[in-house]
Amino acid sequence: xxxxxxxxxxxxxxxxxxxxxxxxxxxxxxxxxxxxxxxxxxxxxxxxxxxxxxxxxxxxxxxxxxxxxxxxxxxxxxxxxxxxxxxxxxxxxxxxxxxxxxxxxxxxxxxxxxxxxxxxxxxxxxxxxxxxxxxxxxxxxxxxxxxxxxxxxxxxxxxxxxxxxxxxxxxxxxxxxxxxxxxxxxxxxxxxxxxxxxxxxxxxxxxxxxxxxxxxxxxxxxxxxxxxxxxxxxxxxxxxxxxxxxxxxxxxxxxxxxxxxxxxxxxxxxxxxxxxxxxxxxxxxxxxxxxxxxxxxxxxxxxxxxxxx
Length: 309
Hints:
- The chain is an alpha/beta fold and about 300 residues long.
- The chain has one domain (about 20-305): Rossmann fold (3-Layer(aba) Sandwich), CATH 3.40.50.
- About 35% of the residues lie in helices and about 15% in strands.
- The chain has eleven helices and eight strands.
- The chain has helices spanning about 95-110, 130-140, 165-170, 175-185, 185-195, 205-215, 220-230, 240-245, 260-270, 285-290, 290-305, and strands at about 20-25, 30-40, 45-50, 70-75, 120-125, 150-155, 250-255, 275-280.
- Strand 5 (about 120-125), helix 2 and strand 6 form a beta-alpha-beta unit.
- Helix 1 packs across helix 2 (about 130-140) and helix 2 packs across helix 8 (about 240-245).
């Protein structure tokens, strides 16, 4: 028998605290639970990680261990994803990006997290999570009862309306699309999506695909994911949001991203006042999985540049 005493082995430092749990929130007229991975020292600077479409906080599994020793890391499952509740789309504004941002703002206000108003918050959003992060950052900056965004990091973010692949266009055909996505979408289709996420197919983690598939096929999961996919079909309004950003912003992009090309990353960085752009050579759409060490280095440097002293 092995006794887990919270240590990494004889003579090693204690493992960072893990307070991961489901947090009860009031979202509109509904009581719902949002799962949040909550790791690292409670009183350390706080980093919020927001995931993309069809996945959940597990996409940061290789990044969190690189941060949790020095930071408190919060990585929620967005409502509708992972082990968070999945309200029907008609009860949550079709899982619009502003609604998702408002749900996260409620999470940050929750007494369970003990994040005092005005506490600096460093927000990182990947893919769809990047668009949500931009809205959350502008919203939280105006809220006196929530942590204050100190930095924003956008990683291969959904930012502009762009042509979708054939399967994406089919999924958005009225009446036919919802049937195809919610009833006929298979694990093989999800895996094929990941061949475009990663720069090389051998990087796909079959175990992770199974984890994402199991969560996606829980009651309400496909309907929520389909509603979020619809949000990505028209991102024209996001340009104004990005122009409104005032906190220090870092834009990180995989140089060979096949889903959202690096040219859009350059365009995004040019749109945000004072933004810095970093390209990761040879990396695809998910630097958090392909190049977690490099992403952690860039994030740490960004946070330290914005920290007083």
